[in-house]
Amino acid sequence: MTTTNTPVLHPGLTPAQRDCLDPLPLTGNHVISGPPGSGKSLLAAHRAMHLALTGRPTLLLSRSNLLRQLLCDTLQGLTVPGAPVEAATVHGWVLRHFGYGAPRTQDGWFDWTALTHQAAATLGENEAAAPHLVVDEGQDLSPGFYRLARLAAASVTVFADECQRLTETNSTLTEITDALGRSTGRGEIAGNHRNSREIASLAEHFRTSGTRPEMPFRSGALPVVRHYSGTKELADDITAMAARHPGDRIGVIVNSQRMAADLMRRLERGGLAREPQLYSSVASSGRYRDLDLARPGVVLVHRASAKGLDFDTVVIADTETDTATDPTAASLRMAYYVMITRARTRLVLGWQGSRLPRHLEGLRGWVHTK
């Protein structure tokens, strides 16, 4: 089994991304941090391909099923014969490894302490089958998961950004490193290859911690804060955007499932050139579960599922749902930091009601207001 570095240079990586990826040993645990747009998901896929060349089973994990679908698409373009990598959710991996009777806590999520005890009891029994795990958006998983992974995997590589912790069971970079052990390597990747300078600048207004990332070189239109009289006007505006930019992927991010359902009905009747797509985490299969994220058109997603995705145009549809939230709250600021940085070229922050939401006040210079 190969344990020394055997870098595979696939097209599409920048020199900085290669400099981050190539020195990583094919053994041990590693945590790589970087801001939105730095290419963490792409690097995670490349890292998984490198590890698969050692001959061990290799899994590319995410908490989000929608992100898993995107990672599957990425892996298809990186396939090396004889070195398969599987993209899976953490939920799916745990059920496969521990069975459908895996212990859970009262909130329905896994009991990481109990699972860690189970893994410790069988440690070393089938070491050759222990997989390499690569985790994307690793800040969305608890330290308990990483203590389990440390025992159940041959190696763990985590790509994360602690400024994007949206789940209730999340981890800081320090917590991930501590859970994986003192010998865990740390690395960073800089740069923003997704957003325009104007979109990245607005995102900075909502960033909660860390050093200021390097601003993108590419410039574009200012983001727009737009008032809508109702859902019909919102749907009409999205339909008009799709008509003006027929080659774009337009992501509509909502905080309300009711809003998502209402918008979907209106968009389906609105004469779009391509059928709109809606992702629902409660759907087990079918059109609301399995999406084609690569094709142009409109995709509706809840903000909880937006992590790791990107679109040419993003519409944050119902910012008024955050009116009662303290505009300085870290959870709110992280949510908007994530949603804003999904946009490559155009961004609209929509609101309804009689008063501009407090967290959208004071943005003069960063946005146009309509």
From TrEMBL:
- InterPro entries this protein is in? DNA_helicase_UvrD/REP, P-loop_NTPase
Q: Which SUPFAM superfamilies match?
A: P-loop containing nucleoside triphosphate hydrolases
Coiled-coil parts of chain:
none
Q: Which Pfam families match?
A: AAA_19
Q: Which domain of life is it from?
A: Bacteria
Spell out the Gene3D superfamilies in the cross-references.
P-loop containing nucleotide triphosphate hydrolases
Q: What is this protein called?
A: AAA family ATPase
Q: Which organism is it from?
A: Streptomyces coffeae
